[in-house]
Amino acid sequence: MSTVAFITGGNRGIGLETARQLGKEGVIPVIGSRDAEAGRQAVAELQAEGIPADFIVFEASSTADRDAAYAYFSDKYGRLDVLVNNAGLGLEGQPAESIGRADATSGVSEETLRQTFEANFFGVVLLTQKLLPLLKKSQAGRIVNVSSVLGSLTLHSDPEASIYPIKMFAYDTSKTALNAFTVHLAHELKDTTIKVNSAHPGWVQTRLGGSVAPLTEADGAKTSVQLATVGADGPTGQLHHLGQVLPW
């Protein structure tokens, strides 16, 4: 019985690479894409590589789309084995642009805060709550919340840390909240076979990371894939990057 994974925002970037790498490990990747044509193109690309991928139209803020996702996995598979909450956004530019910005925190608008939290936190929490009954039907459910080291309060408070001067208030705090969700849900599920972890992809060459980032999208997917396929003795309730535990 093949493992089934749902990767939100999986039609491009790190999400698509996550689907590809999971597919190469024998997992059936189902992509969540806001745009149907983009989803079809991504699936065609993966299928051309021999990966039996599928997609559903999915917008994390849509109650109807969350209900439809539940119905899809319930009707087709009767369960869900892996949920990779990959979809998210950043509205404050690239990280380096925040360095030295005088109003990087006080000047963030309510609209930016609400849109960022809707995508990076509320959408993730509500989808996970919706699909949790299906994950509980898996023999070994895995939940991966794609977060960021920029959500680490420990490192943001350390003048010696490399991220210390980077302050994107809406994005950073949305990832801090997401990390708190990881900790709380992992605790709730600690006596089950489900593992819940946050993944820091690294500084990746994406729309958010920019072209000067040192890691490729394929590199950025590796941590999510590692956590999605971790064994029974693997971690839960942690923030990881390529096997390394990062501080909250």
Automatic annotation (TrEMBL):
Gene3D superfamilies: NAD(P)-binding Rossmann-like Domain. Pfam families: adh_short (PF00106). SUPFAM superfamilies: NAD(P)-binding Rossmann-fold domains. Keywords: NADP, Oxidoreductase. One of its GO terms (molecular function) is oxidoreductase activity. Signal peptide: none annotated. It comes from the Bacteria. The keyword Oxidoreductase applies. Belongs to the short-chain dehydrogenases/reductases (SDR) family. This is NAD(P)-dependent dehydrogenase, short-chain alcohol dehydrogenase family. It comes from Siphonobacter aquaeclarae.
